[in-house]
Protein backbone atom coordinates (compact mmCIF):
# COMPACT_ATOMS: atom_id res chain seq x y z
CA UNK A 1 0.00 0.00 0.00
CA UNK A 2 2.83 2.39 0.84
CA UNK A 3 4.45 1.52 -2.48
CA UNK A 4 1.23 2.33 -4.35
CA UNK A 5 0.90 5.58 -2.42
CA UNK A 6 4.44 6.52 -3.41
CA UNK A 7 3.73 5.77 -7.10
CA UNK A 8 0.59 7.94 -7.01
CA UNK A 9 2.59 10.80 -5.50
CA UNK A 10 5.21 10.46 -8.24
CA UNK A 11 2.52 10.44 -10.94
CA UNK A 12 0.94 13.52 -9.37
CA UNK A 13 4.21 15.45 -9.54
CA UNK A 14 4.81 14.31 -13.14
CA UNK A 15 1.34 15.58 -14.02
CA UNK A 16 2.06 18.93 -12.38
CA UNK A 17 5.34 19.30 -14.24
CA UNK A 18 3.66 18.38 -17.53
CA UNK A 19 0.91 20.95 -16.96
CA UNK A 20 3.47 23.59 -16.11
CA UNK A 21 5.35 22.94 -19.34
CA UNK A 22 2.11 23.08 -21.29
CA UNK A 23 1.15 26.41 -19.73
CA UNK A 24 4.59 27.78 -20.55
CA UNK A 25 4.18 26.71 -24.18
CA UNK A 26 0.73 28.25 -24.41
CA UNK A 27 2.04 31.51 -22.98
CA UNK A 28 4.09 31.90 -26.16
CA UNK A 29 0.84 32.28 -28.07
CA UNK A 30 1.10 29.03 -30.01
CA UNK A 31 -2.21 27.22 -30.14
CA UNK A 32 -1.76 23.72 -28.79
CA UNK A 33 -2.63 20.88 -31.12
CA UNK A 34 -2.03 17.17 -30.94
CA UNK A 35 -0.72 14.67 -33.45
CA UNK A 36 -3.64 12.46 -32.43
CA UNK A 37 -6.28 15.05 -33.35
CA UNK A 38 -8.86 14.66 -36.11
CA UNK A 39 -6.45 16.27 -38.58
CA UNK A 40 -5.24 13.59 -40.98
CA UNK A 41 -2.98 15.06 -43.69
CA UNK A 42 -3.69 12.14 -46.04
CA UNK A 43 -7.45 12.69 -45.84
CA UNK A 44 -7.03 16.47 -45.95
CA UNK A 45 -4.93 16.18 -49.12
CA UNK A 46 -7.38 13.85 -50.83
CA UNK A 47 -10.33 16.10 -49.99
CA UNK A 48 -8.52 19.28 -51.04
CA UNK A 49 -7.26 17.89 -54.33
CA UNK A 50 -10.68 16.47 -55.20
CA UNK A 51 -12.34 19.79 -54.41
CA UNK A 52 -9.76 21.66 -56.48
CA UNK A 53 -10.55 19.47 -59.46
CA UNK A 54 -14.34 19.39 -59.10
CA UNK A 55 -14.58 23.14 -58.51
CA UNK A 56 -12.22 24.54 -61.12
CA UNK A 57 -11.62 21.98 -63.87
CA UNK A 58 -13.72 22.72 -66.96
CA UNK A 59 -14.22 19.64 -69.12
CA UNK A 60 -15.53 21.56 -72.11
CA UNK A 61 -12.50 23.85 -72.30
CA UNK A 62 -10.09 21.28 -70.89
CA UNK A 63 -8.51 23.69 -68.46
CA UNK A 64 -8.73 25.28 -65.03
CA UNK A 65 -11.10 28.22 -64.60
CA UNK A 66 -9.59 31.46 -63.34
CA UNK A 67 -12.63 32.26 -61.19
CA UNK A 68 -15.07 30.37 -59.03
CA UNK A 69 -17.64 29.08 -61.56
CA UNK A 70 -20.43 29.33 -58.99
CA UNK A 71 -20.13 33.13 -58.78
CA UNK A 72 -22.61 34.88 -61.07
CA UNK A 73 -19.93 37.17 -62.47
CA UNK A 74 -17.83 34.16 -63.52
CA UNK A 75 -20.22 32.53 -65.97
CA UNK A 76 -17.89 33.15 -68.93
CA UNK A 77 -14.97 30.72 -68.85
CA UNK A 78 -11.50 32.23 -68.62
CA UNK A 79 -8.30 30.18 -68.44
CA UNK A 80 -6.47 30.55 -65.16
CA UNK A 81 -3.04 32.15 -65.06
CA UNK A 82 -0.20 29.68 -65.44
CA UNK A 83 1.15 30.17 -61.91
CA UNK A 84 -2.17 28.97 -60.46
CA UNK A 85 -2.31 26.10 -62.95
CA UNK A 86 1.19 24.97 -62.00
CA UNK A 87 0.37 24.98 -58.28
CA UNK A 88 -2.97 23.21 -58.64
CA UNK A 89 -1.61 20.98 -61.38
CA UNK A 90 1.23 19.70 -59.23
CA UNK A 91 -1.28 18.77 -56.54
CA UNK A 92 -3.23 16.80 -59.14
CA UNK A 93 -0.07 14.96 -60.21
CA UNK A 94 0.72 14.24 -56.56
CA UNK A 95 -2.65 12.49 -56.28
CA UNK A 96 -1.25 9.93 -58.77
CA UNK A 97 -4.29 10.06 -61.03
CA UNK A 98 -2.74 9.39 -64.45
CA UNK A 99 -5.78 10.47 -66.45
CA UNK A 100 -6.06 13.83 -64.69
CA UNK A 101 -2.28 14.26 -64.86
CA UNK A 102 -2.39 13.92 -68.63
CA UNK A 103 -5.29 16.39 -68.76
CA UNK A 104 -3.26 18.93 -66.77
CA UNK A 105 -0.22 18.48 -69.01
CA UNK A 106 -2.30 18.87 -72.17
CA UNK A 107 -3.84 22.02 -70.75
CA UNK A 108 -0.43 23.45 -69.85
CA UNK A 109 0.79 23.06 -73.42
CA UNK A 110 -1.85 25.63 -74.41
CA UNK A 111 0.26 28.19 -72.54
CA UNK A 112 3.50 27.38 -74.36
CA UNK A 113 4.70 29.88 -76.96
CA UNK A 114 6.88 29.35 -80.02
CA UNK A 115 10.06 29.93 -77.99
CA UNK A 116 9.21 27.18 -75.52
CA UNK A 117 8.22 29.43 -72.62
CA UNK A 118 4.90 29.01 -70.83
CA UNK A 119 3.12 32.38 -70.94
CA UNK A 120 1.01 33.97 -68.23
CA UNK A 121 -2.14 32.94 -70.09
CA UNK A 122 -2.68 31.21 -73.44
CA UNK A 123 -1.59 33.57 -76.19
CA UNK A 124 -0.09 36.07 -73.75
CA UNK A 125 3.22 37.71 -74.67
CA UNK A 126 4.61 37.76 -71.12
CA UNK A 127 6.43 34.87 -69.45
CA UNK A 128 7.98 34.65 -65.99
CA UNK A 129 10.87 32.45 -65.00
CA UNK A 130 9.48 31.50 -61.61
CA UNK A 131 6.20 30.42 -63.21
CA UNK A 132 8.13 28.29 -65.67
CA UNK A 133 10.14 26.67 -62.89
CA UNK A 134 6.92 25.52 -61.27
CA UNK A 135 5.66 24.32 -64.65
CA UNK A 136 8.88 22.31 -64.96
CA UNK A 137 8.15 20.65 -61.61
CA UNK A 138 4.73 19.58 -62.89
CA UNK A 139 6.15 17.99 -66.04
CA UNK A 140 9.00 16.36 -64.15
CA UNK A 141 6.69 14.74 -61.63
CA UNK A 142 4.22 13.87 -64.39
CA UNK A 143 7.05 12.03 -66.15
CA UNK A 144 7.91 10.13 -62.97
CA UNK A 145 4.27 9.05 -62.70
CA UNK A 146 3.48 8.27 -66.35
CA UNK A 147 6.92 7.63 -67.91
CA UNK A 148 5.80 9.75 -70.86
CA UNK A 149 9.10 10.84 -72.44
CA UNK A 150 7.48 13.96 -73.87
CA UNK A 151 7.11 15.35 -70.36
CA UNK A 152 10.78 14.79 -69.54
CA UNK A 153 11.81 16.39 -72.84
CA UNK A 154 9.68 19.42 -71.98
CA UNK A 155 11.34 19.69 -68.55
CA UNK A 156 14.84 19.43 -70.03
CA UNK A 157 14.21 22.07 -72.69
CA UNK A 158 12.61 24.36 -70.13
CA UNK A 159 15.66 24.01 -67.89
CA UNK A 160 17.88 25.17 -70.75
CA UNK A 161 15.69 28.25 -71.22
CA UNK A 162 15.75 28.99 -67.49
CA UNK A 163 19.53 28.74 -67.31
CA UNK A 164 19.69 31.15 -70.23
CA UNK A 165 18.04 33.81 -68.05
CA UNK A 166 21.14 34.11 -65.87
CA UNK A 167 22.14 37.78 -65.92
CA UNK A 168 25.61 38.37 -67.31
CA UNK A 169 25.48 41.94 -66.00
CA UNK A 170 24.95 41.36 -62.28
CA UNK A 171 24.30 37.64 -61.86
CA UNK A 172 21.16 35.94 -60.62
CA UNK A 173 18.19 34.74 -62.64
CA UNK A 174 15.76 37.19 -64.19
CA UNK A 175 12.19 37.24 -62.88
CA UNK A 176 10.45 38.16 -66.13
CA UNK A 177 11.91 36.58 -69.26
CA UNK A 178 14.54 39.02 -70.62
CA UNK A 179 13.50 41.58 -68.00
CA UNK A 180 15.59 43.85 -65.78
CA UNK A 181 14.55 42.54 -62.36
CA UNK A 182 16.62 39.81 -60.69
CA UNK A 183 14.45 38.10 -58.08
CA UNK A 184 15.44 35.81 -55.27
CA UNK A 185 12.46 33.57 -56.04
CA UNK A 186 13.36 33.08 -59.71
CA UNK A 187 16.99 32.39 -58.78
CA UNK A 188 16.03 29.92 -56.07
CA UNK A 189 13.39 28.14 -58.12
CA UNK A 190 15.89 27.83 -60.97
CA UNK A 191 18.30 26.18 -58.53
CA UNK A 192 15.62 23.81 -57.23
CA UNK A 193 14.60 22.94 -60.79
CA UNK A 194 18.20 22.01 -61.52
CA UNK A 195 18.59 19.67 -58.54
CA UNK A 196 15.21 18.05 -59.19
CA UNK A 197 16.09 17.43 -62.82
CA UNK A 198 19.50 16.04 -61.84
CA UNK A 199 17.75 12.99 -60.42
CA UNK A 200 16.69 12.05 -63.95
CA UNK A 201 19.73 12.81 -66.08
CA UNK A 202 22.64 12.95 -63.58
CA UNK A 203 24.08 15.98 -65.39
CA UNK A 204 26.65 17.41 -62.95
CA UNK A 205 26.41 20.83 -64.57
CA UNK A 206 22.94 21.12 -63.03
CA UNK A 207 24.39 20.79 -59.53
CA UNK A 208 27.02 23.38 -60.42
CA UNK A 209 24.32 25.75 -61.63
CA UNK A 210 22.30 25.29 -58.43
CA UNK A 211 25.37 26.02 -56.30
CA UNK A 212 26.12 29.12 -58.39
CA UNK A 213 22.60 30.40 -57.77
CA UNK A 214 22.86 29.87 -54.01
CA UNK A 215 26.28 31.51 -53.78
CA UNK A 216 25.04 34.53 -55.72
CA UNK A 217 22.07 34.88 -53.39
CA UNK A 218 24.30 34.71 -50.33
CA UNK A 219 26.51 37.44 -51.75
CA UNK A 220 23.76 39.75 -52.98
CA UNK A 221 20.32 39.20 -51.39
CA UNK A 222 20.88 37.49 -48.04
CA UNK A 223 19.88 39.31 -44.88
CA UNK A 224 22.54 37.96 -42.54
CA UNK A 225 20.56 39.02 -39.48
CA UNK A 226 17.95 36.30 -40.01
CA UNK A 227 19.20 34.15 -42.91
CA UNK A 228 16.26 35.10 -45.14
CA UNK A 229 16.38 36.57 -48.64
CA UNK A 230 15.44 40.01 -49.86
CA UNK A 231 13.13 40.09 -52.85
CA UNK A 232 15.51 41.27 -55.55
CA UNK A 233 17.32 44.02 -57.40
CA UNK A 234 17.41 45.72 -60.78
CA UNK A 235 20.20 45.06 -63.24
CA UNK A 236 20.52 48.81 -63.78
CA UNK A 237 21.04 49.56 -60.09
CA UNK A 238 22.44 46.58 -58.23
CA UNK A 239 22.77 48.44 -54.96
CA UNK A 240 19.10 49.39 -54.72
CA UNK A 241 17.60 46.26 -53.19
CA UNK A 242 13.91 45.54 -52.70
CA UNK A 243 13.95 44.31 -49.10
CA UNK A 244 10.59 42.55 -49.07
CA UNK A 245 10.62 38.97 -47.79
CA UNK A 246 8.28 36.05 -48.36
CA UNK A 247 8.23 32.51 -47.03
CA UNK A 248 8.43 30.80 -50.39
CA UNK A 249 12.02 31.90 -50.94
CA UNK A 250 13.08 30.28 -47.67
CA UNK A 251 11.12 27.13 -48.40
CA UNK A 252 12.64 26.72 -51.85
CA UNK A 253 16.11 27.30 -50.40
CA UNK A 254 15.56 24.61 -47.76
CA UNK A 255 14.45 22.18 -50.47
CA UNK A 256 17.43 23.00 -52.68
CA UNK A 257 19.96 22.55 -49.88
CA UNK A 258 18.27 19.27 -48.92
CA UNK A 259 18.59 17.93 -52.46
CA UNK A 260 22.22 19.05 -52.66
CA UNK A 261 22.90 17.05 -49.51
CA UNK A 262 21.14 14.05 -51.05
CA UNK A 263 23.45 14.08 -54.06
CA UNK A 264 26.72 15.19 -52.43
CA UNK A 265 26.51 13.95 -48.81
CA UNK A 266 27.98 17.31 -47.80
CA UNK A 267 26.76 18.04 -44.26
CA UNK A 268 27.18 21.80 -44.69
CA UNK A 269 23.98 21.83 -46.75
CA UNK A 270 22.05 20.22 -43.90
CA UNK A 271 23.39 22.82 -41.46
CA UNK A 272 22.35 25.71 -43.70
CA UNK A 273 18.89 24.27 -44.37
CA UNK A 274 18.35 23.54 -40.68
CA UNK A 275 19.33 27.06 -39.67
CA UNK A 276 16.86 28.57 -42.13
CA UNK A 277 14.13 26.21 -40.96
CA UNK A 278 14.72 27.13 -37.32
CA UNK A 279 14.60 30.79 -38.27
CA UNK A 280 11.09 30.55 -39.68
CA UNK A 281 9.87 29.13 -36.37
CA UNK A 282 11.50 31.77 -34.17
CA UNK A 283 11.83 34.99 -36.17
CA UNK A 284 9.03 37.57 -36.06
CA UNK A 285 9.51 38.13 -39.78
CA UNK A 286 7.18 35.29 -40.71
CA UNK A 287 5.18 34.73 -37.51
CA UNK A 288 1.84 36.20 -36.52
CA UNK A 289 1.18 37.20 -32.93
CA UNK A 290 -0.20 33.70 -32.28
CA UNK A 291 2.94 31.92 -33.45
CA UNK A 292 1.73 30.79 -36.86
CA UNK A 293 3.19 31.66 -40.25
CA UNK A 294 1.73 34.89 -41.57
CA UNK A 295 2.14 34.45 -45.33
CA UNK A 296 -0.78 33.45 -47.52
CA UNK A 297 -1.26 29.92 -48.79
CA UNK A 298 0.21 30.76 -52.21
CA UNK A 299 3.56 31.55 -50.56
CA UNK A 300 3.67 29.32 -47.52
CA UNK A 301 3.02 26.02 -49.30
CA UNK A 302 6.61 26.06 -50.57
CA UNK A 303 7.82 26.50 -47.00
CA UNK A 304 5.94 23.33 -46.06
CA UNK A 305 7.62 21.63 -49.02
CA UNK A 306 10.99 22.78 -47.74
CA UNK A 307 10.38 21.33 -44.30
CA UNK A 308 9.09 18.10 -45.85
CA UNK A 309 12.29 17.73 -47.88
CA UNK A 310 14.43 18.54 -44.84
CA UNK A 311 12.61 15.91 -42.79
CA UNK A 312 12.48 13.15 -45.41
CA UNK A 313 15.84 13.69 -47.12
CA UNK A 314 17.98 14.89 -44.22
CA UNK A 315 16.12 13.00 -41.48
CA UNK A 316 15.46 16.14 -39.42
CA UNK A 317 12.45 14.65 -37.69
CA UNK A 318 12.64 17.08 -34.82
CA UNK A 319 10.63 19.52 -36.96
CA UNK A 320 7.66 17.20 -37.42
CA UNK A 321 5.60 18.43 -34.48
CA UNK A 322 6.01 22.12 -35.37
CA UNK A 323 5.19 21.64 -39.05
CA UNK A 324 2.23 19.41 -38.24
CA UNK A 325 0.76 22.10 -36.01
CA UNK A 326 1.21 24.76 -38.68
CA UNK A 327 -0.64 22.52 -41.13
CA UNK A 328 -3.37 21.66 -38.66
CA UNK A 329 -3.93 25.36 -38.04
CA UNK A 330 -4.58 25.87 -41.76
CA UNK A 331 -6.88 22.86 -41.85
CA UNK A 332 -8.92 24.15 -38.92
CA UNK A 333 -8.95 27.87 -39.73
CA UNK A 334 -8.69 28.33 -43.51
CA UNK A 335 -11.12 25.66 -44.71
CA UNK A 336 -14.36 27.27 -45.84
CA UNK A 337 -17.45 26.56 -43.75
CA UNK A 338 -20.51 24.86 -45.19
CA UNK A 339 -21.14 21.44 -46.66
CA UNK A 340 -20.59 22.62 -50.22
CA UNK A 341 -17.13 23.97 -49.40
CA UNK A 342 -15.46 20.91 -47.87
CA UNK A 343 -11.88 20.88 -49.11
CA UNK A 344 -11.94 24.49 -50.32
CA UNK A 345 -9.58 26.98 -48.66
CA UNK A 346 -9.03 30.73 -48.45
CA UNK A 347 -6.59 32.86 -46.46
CA UNK A 348 -9.11 33.44 -43.69
CA UNK A 349 -6.57 33.38 -40.86
CA UNK A 350 -3.71 35.33 -42.41
CA UNK A 351 -4.01 39.10 -42.39
CA UNK A 352 -1.21 40.66 -44.39
CA UNK A 353 1.51 41.90 -42.07
CA UNK A 354 3.02 45.36 -42.43
CA UNK A 355 6.53 44.03 -43.10
CA UNK A 356 5.45 42.53 -46.41
CA UNK A 357 6.62 45.23 -48.76
CA UNK A 358 6.54 45.39 -52.52
CA UNK A 359 7.10 41.65 -52.82
CA UNK A 360 3.49 40.99 -51.98
CA UNK A 361 2.06 43.68 -54.23
CA UNK A 362 4.33 42.61 -57.03
CA UNK A 363 3.18 39.01 -56.92
CA UNK A 364 -0.45 40.10 -56.64
CA UNK A 365 -0.03 42.03 -59.88
CA UNK A 366 1.86 39.07 -61.29
CA UNK A 367 -1.09 36.87 -60.39
CA UNK A 368 -3.60 39.13 -62.14
CA UNK A 369 -1.16 39.62 -65.02
CA UNK A 370 -1.24 43.40 -65.17
CA UNK A 371 2.37 43.12 -66.27
CA UNK A 372 2.66 46.53 -67.89
CA UNK A 373 1.53 48.15 -64.66
CA UNK A 374 3.96 46.33 -62.39
CA UNK A 375 5.93 48.80 -60.32
CA UNK A 376 8.82 47.41 -58.33
CA UNK A 377 8.83 50.56 -56.20
CA UNK A 378 5.35 50.14 -54.76
CA UNK A 379 5.16 51.09 -51.10
CA UNK A 380 4.26 48.77 -48.27
CA UNK A 381 0.76 48.41 -46.90
CA UNK A 382 -1.97 45.93 -46.19
CA UNK A 383 -4.21 44.41 -48.80
CA UNK A 384 -7.90 43.66 -48.81
CA UNK A 385 -8.93 40.05 -49.14
CA UNK A 386 -11.84 39.73 -51.56
CA UNK A 387 -13.52 36.74 -49.99
CA UNK A 388 -16.94 36.94 -51.62
CA UNK A 389 -18.62 36.83 -55.01
CA UNK A 390 -19.83 40.19 -56.27
CA UNK A 391 -23.50 39.32 -55.91
CA UNK A 392 -23.53 40.58 -52.29
CA UNK A 393 -24.83 37.23 -51.06
CA UNK A 394 -21.84 36.60 -48.80
CA UNK A 395 -21.12 33.59 -50.98
CA UNK A 396 -17.46 32.69 -50.68
CA UNK A 397 -15.44 33.14 -53.86
CA UNK A 398 -13.25 30.07 -53.96
CA UNK A 399 -9.67 30.27 -55.22
CA UNK A 400 -7.82 27.82 -57.47
CA UNK A 401 -4.49 29.01 -56.10
CA UNK A 402 -5.52 28.69 -52.46
CA UNK A 403 -7.11 25.27 -52.99
CA UNK A 404 -4.06 23.98 -54.85
CA UNK A 405 -1.71 25.44 -52.25
CA UNK A 406 -3.63 23.85 -49.38
CA UNK A 407 -3.54 20.50 -51.16
CA UNK A 408 0.23 20.80 -51.58
CA UNK A 409 0.61 21.66 -47.89
CA UNK A 410 -1.23 18.55 -46.78
CA UNK A 411 0.67 16.40 -49.27
CA UNK A 412 3.96 17.74 -47.90
CA UNK A 413 2.94 16.78 -44.37
CA UNK A 414 1.65 13.38 -45.46
CA UNK A 415 5.12 12.49 -46.79
CA UNK A 416 6.48 12.26 -43.25
CA UNK A 417 3.24 11.03 -41.64
CA UNK A 418 3.02 7.57 -43.17
UniProtKB/TrEMBL annotation:
Residues 1-20 form the signal peptide. Keywords: Signal. Residues 365-374 have a biased composition (Basic and acidic residues). It comes from the Eukaryota. Residues 365-386 are annotated as: Disordered. Residues 377-386 have a biased composition (Polar residues). SUPFAM superfamilies: Six-hairpin glycosidases. The keyword Nucleotide-binding does not apply. One of its GO terms (biological process) is carbohydrate metabolic process. The keyword Signal applies. This is Alpha-1,6-mannanase. It comes from Candida albicans P78048.
Amino acid sequence: MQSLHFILIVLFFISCISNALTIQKDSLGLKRTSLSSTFDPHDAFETAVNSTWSTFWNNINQGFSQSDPSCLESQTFQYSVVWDVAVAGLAIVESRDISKTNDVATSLYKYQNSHGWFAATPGNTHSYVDDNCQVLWVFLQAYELTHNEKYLTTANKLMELIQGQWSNEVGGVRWKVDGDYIASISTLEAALSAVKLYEQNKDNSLLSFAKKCLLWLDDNLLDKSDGFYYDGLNVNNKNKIDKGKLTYTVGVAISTYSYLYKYTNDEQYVLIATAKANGTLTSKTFLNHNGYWNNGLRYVHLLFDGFSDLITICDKRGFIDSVWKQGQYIYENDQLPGGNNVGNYLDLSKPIESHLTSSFHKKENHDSKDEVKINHKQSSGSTHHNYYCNNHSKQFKRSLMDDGSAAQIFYAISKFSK
